[in-house]
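Thought: the user wants the 3D structure for the chain below. I'll pass the sequence to the structure tool as-is, report back what it returns, then summarize two notable features.
Action: structure_tool
Action Input:
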Amino acid sequence: MLTIIMECRDNEAELAQTLSALVSGAVEGVVRDVIVLDHGSRDGSSKVADAAGCRFLTSWDMKDVVRSARGDWLLLLEPGARPLSGWVDAVVDHVSVNRNPAQFLGSRSHRRPFLQRLARRRAPLEQGYLVSKRQASAAVRTGMALADIATGAGVRRLAVELVPAWAVKAMRAGID
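Observation:
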């Protein structure tokens, strides 16, 4: 039913956090596969992806990636992003009655400071992007990045929060 796709470069720790948050979807049979598109990582990203049973691609054509997805729906995420409790039910509810793409709600506990919210546009994948494989196939072009797919009108909101990748990086920077 669902294929998760992420792009990474030296995101070993972030990738591990995202993959651990997706386990509940795999256990419930909702996540069919996970594809990690690598941009030249020199850390252990490939080992993390391999241990989790992901397809780890170092060269790809986005059209082929979308075409090879096993799920009828694609969930595009940034490494480090973590959907919170209840995400599986929210996704299943959405895909059963909607055809429009969707994004998660922003985490109330992880908000950028006020001035940053005013000065900076939100990254296209900051709240994830759920899109049908059919819609993604129609929109994808050779040379596109995942963020390029996550544009367009008619995006609905899922009734569950997502901790954005930037928040995970900020928490790690505070610990290090």
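Final Answer: Structure generated. Residues 2-175 form a domain with the Spore Coat Polysaccharide Biosynthesis Protein SpsA; Chain A fold (CATH 3.90.550.10). The chain has one domain: 2-175.
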